[in-house]
Write a structure and sequence with these properties.
Layout lengths: L8 H15 L3 E2 L4 E3 L4 E2 L5 E6 L9 E6 L7 E4 L11 E5 L5 E5 L4 E5 L9 E5 L5 E5 L12 E2 L7 E2 L5 E4 L4 E2 L2 E6 L2 E12 L5 E6 L2 E8 L17 E7 L3 E8 L6 E5 L5 E7 L4 E6 L16 E3 L7 E3 L3 E3 L2 H5 L7 E3 L10 E9 L7 E3 L4 H9 L4 E8 L4 E7 L7 E3 L5 E7 L1 H43 L14 H10 L11 H7 L8 E4 L4 E6 L5 E6 L8 H13 L8 E7 L2 E7 L6 H6 L1 H4 L4 H21 L3 E3 L8 E3 L5 E3 L6 E3 L5 E3 L2 E4 L6 H6 L1 E3 H17 L15 H11 L16 H14 L10 H9 L13 E3 L2 E3 L3 H9 L4 E4 L4
Parallel strand pairs: 25-33, 45-49
Antiparallel strand pairs: 1-10, 2-7, 3-4, 4-5, 5-6, 7-8, 8-9, 10-11, 11-12, 13-22, 14-15, 14-21, 16-17, 17-18, 18-19, 20-21, 22-23, 23-24, 25-26, 27-28, 29-33, 29-34, 30-32, 31-32, 31-34, 35-36, 36-37, 37-39, 38-39, 40-43, 41-42, 44-46, 47-48
Helix pairs in contact: 10-12, 10-15, 12-14
């Protein structure tokens, strides 16, 4: 008779099998088979392996890996790209030799196999949370990440996940490329491919079919020369490694909770995507520079492409078109040639061409240990060496040489972010450079002499003004003058109109067609503004003080005083004024693009303002404020910095305008207090609106608000969000704390490849709007932070923001003072 417990054995085995299967859900054991409908899940459920159909329009089945936990159903890898299974009869098995085999069970035909670099007596397949499917030797301990039998990361498709080594493993003989899908429902290889070429100095190309479409360039220690806008950022790190074992580029996430991937689309767009939890979709994070100049060799040899010029192609200095007729017809493919041919004669040397994308390096020679001077000497001593450059600009070492057998091709200008190249020139050409340099030195001497003389004359004028200011003025009934601080500043304004050119009223009537409505271009607190033409052809803007103006004679004189004394490219230039009877007008240089507010807040214009222009505007405003706060003769606080007071010239250069509310400090003063608070809600700092205290940090707060408006395209006042009641500052603060700050960026800008600049601008903006003035940076620090790649301090809670419909001043005492102190009034001057 059998023991009574024997009938339990089959159930125990079944339970054990189920238990071990659940404990090892991320592994495939030897001879284990995964059929259509079964899946393998990574330990943290980040990725899943199984069978799928790309779309509902096809019944073809593929073995693949896709995101599971967050970005569900997003396919990251496909095994049988070229050989789909027509039904659900696919089976994946790990064979004892360590090879994964996919077969069609109905036909017993092998569809795909992994292959291996070596065999193993005890293999196991594992799906990792990186999305990598690996075949490992169980007895090897798996301590060495490179000690694997096979991995899917060596055979990527159209998706480049963090951790994939894109390049070549010299020991294993593995070369990694990326190819697009043919269509959205067909993952077979499309016509677009991104690959690393290892001839000469390794560099990255993108092909369309057999034709090079774009060259991302070689690695220079910081980035690839064709992708200089990719900079260190708080989201991911990136590097290129080159040694005797392998040459590869890869990126890694700093915070694994973020989801970032690169993808080569069916249209050939190489994009970096970020998963946004709030919207449950992939958002464009960055893409390489894609414009006319990104097309491979569009300008031919010895020519440079520059999108800021027209036409975009131009011969390098010292070169002329090889075929002038074709060149004049905008066919630049034949390129240029040396204007004076090289002959290896005495005196030949090198001309420096700064800020360039380095030429194609497929036939170049390089040495990673040479200094730049050793590089120059080597090239100089070899007559057929036509150019040289540094290999690694991060540590300033290494040498690349180009020879005349390989024409310098696919060069473009990258202002502010390119790399220097030195090209061989004849003695005659170099002599031209010497003469130009000598002329420049003479010009500098003349300019310095003029500046010294002007400074002396200016000093004499200042002494005369100081003497006049000492004269006792008559008592005025102006209530502003009763405030001691305002009274002292008013005294400094008096009798300074003689420093500014005076226009007759008849001249301005003629220039503006009698101030006709057809010439009216705006109106603000001061009065209407008209466009006009002087007899010499100059365009002018005439600001006319109206009888109903909320700003009076005091503000008029204030603006004349300050703006006539200030000279900076980012401050609007005043040409003169007119005072005849009751008529008071100010005459400015005309700004054809009017105010920044029109471009930020008008639907038809907002999309025309790209990120490059916005970043240029942010930096221009910062430089203008730095001049006011630090570099001008008086420390000036603008007090009414806002989008409508930033004017744009024909090149979209920003000019700070409207100095009617400006105040100056004397000596080492840094802040003061007033009972007459002026400005615009949404831009005023808490300490100013609440207690009347203003300083340079008040302008910094307004600048921070402006930055957030420029990045988001949203007004600070009147901002509305469908899921909460935060204002713009509160919304930005919320997104920053959630790690979703990119959602603040205007949607039309996301397609650019300048995400690092956007993130940094928002971060700096939040630093500027911190509640405590002492926490806010100075404008000199702002400019340094905007132009560098270094780490930034963490911002603290902003002042004056609304969260969940409740006002959050950050400092409640300031608001109590504002509400209880009856002698404080807020004069809000609405935008022009």
């Amino acid at each position: 008779m059998e023991p009574p417990f024997l009938f339990l054995i089959p159930f125990l085995f079944s339970f054990y099998a189920l238990f071990t299967s659940s404990m090892a859900a991320n592994t495939i054991a030897v001879n284990q088979t995964i059929t259509d409908g079964q899946t393998i899940v990574s330990p943290q459920q980040s990725f899943e392996l199984g069978f799928f159909s790309p779309t509902t329009t096809t019944h073809n089945r593929y073995l693949g890996i896709w995101y599971k936990r967050l970005a569900t159903d997003t396919v990251a890898w496909v095994a049988n790209r070229e050989t789909p299974i027509a039904n659900k009869s696919g089976e994946l098995t790990l064979h004892p030799n360590g090879v994964l085999v996919l077969r069609d069970s109905t036909t017993n035909r092998t569809i795909w196999s992994s292959g291996s670099t070596r065999t193993s007596p005890n293999p196991i397949a594992q799906l990792l949370d990186s999305g990598n499917l690996m075949v490992l030797d169980q007895e090897g301990g798996n301590d060495d990440p490179e000690d694997y039998i096979w991995q899917s990361f060596d055979q990527p498709g159209n998706t480049y996940l963090p951790g994939i080594k894109f390049g070549r493993n010299l020991q294993k003989g593995v070369v990694t490329n990326f190819t697009s899908w043919k269509t959205d429902d067909d993952p077979s290889e499309g016509e677009h491919m991104v690959y690393m070429d290892f001839n000469g100095l390794p560099q990255i190309y993108q092909n369309k079919g057999d034709v090079i479409h774009m060259r991302l360039g070689s690695w220079n220690g910081l980035s690839h020369t064709g992708m200089p806008t990719l900079k260190p950022n708080p989201i991911f790190t990136f590097e290129q490694v080159s040694n005797d074992r392998e040459i590869y580029y890869k990126f890694e996430l700093i915070n694994s909770s973020n989801l970032i991937k690169m993808m080569l689309t069916t249209n050939g767009d190489l994009v970096r995507l970020n998963w946004v939890n709030r919207s449950q979709e992939w958002s464009l994070f960055s893409t390489p520079e894609v414009d006319k100049c990104s097309q491979y060799a569009v300008c031919g040899p010895y020519a440079s492409c520059n999108t800021e010029q027209f036409p975009v192609c131009g011969c390098l200095k010292g070169f002329v078109p090889k075929n002038p007729q074709q060149w004049d017809a905008a066919d630049w493919t034949s390129g240029c040639r040396w204007e004076i041919p090289l002959d290896c004669g005495v005196g030949e040397g090198f001309r420096r061409y700064p800020l360039m994308k380095l030429p194609d390096t497929r036939k170049s020679w390089f040495d990673r240990k040479m200094s730049l001077e050793q590089c120059r000497i080597k090239c100089k001593n070899e007559c057929n060496c036509s150019a040289y450059s540094a290999l690694d600009i991060l540590v300033n070492i290494g040498c690349i040489l180009w020879y005349d057998v390989d024409e310098l091709i696919d060069i473009r200008s990258f202002p502010n972010i390119g790399q220097d190249i030195y090209i061989r020139m004849t003695a005659v050409e170099l002599e031209k450079d010497k003469k130009t340099s000598s002329g420049n030195k003479k010009a500098k001497i003349i300019v310095i002499s003029i500046m010294v003389g002007s400074t002396v004359l200016l000093g004499l004028l200042v002494l005369m003004i100081i003497r006049k200011r000492k004269e006792k003025r008559q008592e005025r009934h102006d209530p502003v003058a009763k405030d001691k601080e305002e009274s002292q500043i008013y005294e400094s304004r008096k009798d300074n109109l003689h420093d500014l050119p005076l226009f007759s009223l008849s001249t301005l009537f003629k220039a503006t067609d009698n101030f006709s409505d057809s010439n009216k271009i705006g109106e603000g607190g001061f009065g209407p503004v008209y466009k006009g033409f002087l007899e010499d052809g100059r365009e002018i803007a005439v600001k006319r003080l109206s009888e109903s103006s909320t700003q009076g004679v005091d503000e008029f004189k204030n603006e004349v005083l300050f703006i006539s004394k200030l000279q900076h490219r980012n401050l609007v230039k005043i040409l003169g004024c007119c005072i005849e009877g009751q008529e008071k007008t100010l005459v400015y240089e005309y700004m054809p693009n009017k105010g920044l507010d029109l471009f930020l807040f008008q639907e038809d214009k907002r999309k025309t303002l790209n990120w490059t222009q916005r970043f240029h505007i942010i930096n221009g405003i910062a430089r203008g404020l730095l001049y006011l706060h630090q570099d001008s003769r008086l420390r000036i606080i603008h007090r009414d910095l806002k989008a409508s007071n930033i004017l744009l010239d024909h090149e979209m250069n920003p000019k700070i305008s409207d100095f009617g509310m400006a105040r100056s400090f004397r000596g080492n003063d840094t802040e003061t207090k007033t009972k007459r608070v002026v400005g615009t809600y949404g831009y005023m700092s808490p300490e100013y609106a609440g207690n009347g205290i203003f300083s340079v940090k008040s302008d910094v707060f307004s600048f921070g608000v402006l930055v957030l408006e420029i990045v988001s395209g949203k007004k600070s006042r009147g901002f509305f969000h469908m899921t909460h009641n935060d204002n713009l500052l509160g919304h930005a603060w919320r997104l920053y704390n959630e790690g979703n700050i990119l959602e603040l960026v205007e949607a039309s800008l996301i397609e650019s490849n300048c995400t690092f600049e956007m993130l940094r601008s928002i971060h700096v903006g939040l630093l500027c709007v911190q509640n405590n003035p002492d926490d806010r940076p100075t404008m000199s620090t702002v400019i340094m932070m905007m132009s560098s790649d270094g780490p930034l301090p963490e911002p603290k809670q902003p002042g004056f923001y609304i969260e969940n419909g409740k006002f959050q001043p950050g400092n409640s005492s300031s608001m109590q003072t504002q509400e209880s102190n009856g002698d404080i009034t807020i004069t809000v001057l609405e935008p022009r």
